[in-house]
Amino acid sequence: MEIAVGVLGALTILAVLAAWYSLRWVRMRRGGGVSVALRWRPDEARSSWHLGLGRYEGEQFVWFRVWSLRTGPDRVFERVSMEIADRRDPSGTEAYAVPEGSIVLRCESATQEAIEIAMGPGALTGFLSWLESAPPGRRLPRAS
Description:
By secondary structure, this protein is of the alpha+beta class. The protein folds into two domains: 31 residues; 100 residues, PH-domain like (Roll), CATH 2.30.29.30. It contains three helices and seven strands; from the N terminus they run H-E-E-E-E-E-H-E-E-H. A seven-stranded antiparallel sheet has the order 4-3-2-1-7-6-5, with helices on one face. The radius of gyration is 19 Å and the shape is elongated. The chain starts with a helix and ends in a 12-residue tail after the last helix. It comes from Amycolatopsis orientalis. Pfam families: DUF2550.
């Protein structure tokens, strides 16, 4: 009898988690976004890639990790402080951990830790356009 109650409890927990992840995924996808892989602290030997969904929200690029219990974004990046330090193709086994056909960008910021972000060609074009564009009201320095 005790075993049956334990098994029923475990199945209930699994069903709740499955429903939670399904609802979270639908909510994330409803807002639009692109599939990207992210790696923070890329200079550390044990850093690994995490799959997720990236979305542009005004001056911010927000990233939702696929397997997370958070209701909001897992990482938020500000456009004004973000710059691309390096661009490369995935190497070795990285090709299996990032979306197919990805390019890896190393992004650095004065206010946040360095990250590497991997995305496919279409998502990369959108990301670069968003990063380089100036929102209304922000003055760009004029060339002399």
